[in-house]
Amino acid sequence: MPALPEGATAISVTATKGRFLWAGDTVPLARFVVRDPNPGGRTISLSGGAIATVTQDKQTWKVANLPVSAFRSTIPALASSLFATVTLSGLTLRYAR
Questions:
Q1: Which of 11, 28, 59, 87 is the most buried (most CB within 10 A)?
Q2: How far is residue 54's CA from residue 33's CA, in Å, rounded to a whole number?
Q3: What is the pTM for the complete model shown?
Q4: CA-to-CA distance for 61 and 22, rounded, in angstroms?
Q5: What's the pLDDT at 91?
Q6: How far is CA 68 from CA 14, 54, 74, 96, in A?
Q7: Is 80 helix (H, G, I), strand (E, B) or coil?
């Protein structure tokens, strides 16, 4: 659970290139990101199912089997407590027969 600030808090945001868009809905309007060189085995999930465990600052998986349930009835969504970049390349989706 994130720590809640006690007392007054100020946030300053600057876009150094392009545009900065600010929007909020059901999530907090601001999140602070702190670089963590030790991800501690936290997971990356796809539609609620863990697909990877991150143990290093930079990591590559050559082959991954994505859970079939992630592509049924909802839009697939990646989630993690880490501030991470996930790149999927050479992705092939096949319909079950």
A1: 59
A2: 17
A3: 0.55
A4: 33
A5: 77
A6: 41, 21, 12, 10
A7: strand
